């Protein structure tokens, strides 16, 4: 039982801590502030709280999957989407590679849809926990591509 909660804590640290660390190392900065934004661009203060909640939900979904089958395909898919997630911020905010960042999001969406649909019959809670994330990264794709279009197309 103790190992179960230690592994949950590890997933929370990985997702929430890792996401927070990546975010603090790849801040939007002057470059982003200078971009023309679409009318639906959320206020800057919203991103931190939203990502914190989403990362906690992603962590629990990953942990539940880990407890079921630590070496299975779905766990590999979960880790792959998280790696892409952590890659997006430096690609977009640090290197300013907007189209490459959009491609990363497309891959994140594909992996997340695959994860959600494949785990549905095994663990509905893990599946549902990833749905808000899918919605947010889909919105992020729209925002990412709109920023590119308004500023560089």
UniProtKB/TrEMBL annotation:
Predominant location: membrane
Keyword line: Membrane, Transmembrane, Transmembrane helix
Source taxon at top rank: Bacteria
GO biological process, any: tetrapyrrole metabolic process
UniProt topology in membrane: Multi-pass membrane protein
Key word Membrane present: yes
Location in the cell: Membrane
GO cellular component term, pick one: membrane
TM region positions: 45-66, 73-91, 97-116, 128-150
Family according to the record: Belongs to the TspO/BZRP family.
Name the record gives this protein: CrtK/TspO family sensor protein
């Amino acid at each position: 039982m103790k190992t179960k909660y230690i592994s949950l804590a590890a997933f929370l640290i990985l997702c929430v801590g890792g996401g927070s660390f990546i975010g603090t190392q790849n801040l939007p900065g002057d470059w982003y502030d200078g971009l023309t934004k679409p009318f639906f661009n959320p206020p800057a203060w919203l991103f931190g709280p939203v990502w914190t909640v989403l990362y906690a939900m992603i962590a629990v979904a990953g942990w539940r999957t880990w407890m079921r089958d630590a070496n299975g395909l779905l766990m590999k898919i979960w880790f792959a989407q998280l790696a892409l997630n952590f890659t997006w911020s430096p690609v977009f905010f640090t290197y300013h590679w907007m189209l490459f960042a959009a491609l990363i999001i497309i891959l994140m969406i594909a992996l997340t849809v695959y994860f959600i649909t494949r785990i549905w019959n095994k663990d509905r809670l893990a599946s549902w926990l990833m749905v808000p994330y899918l919605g947010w990264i889909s919105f992020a794709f729209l925002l990412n591509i709109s920023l590119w279009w308004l500023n560089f197309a």
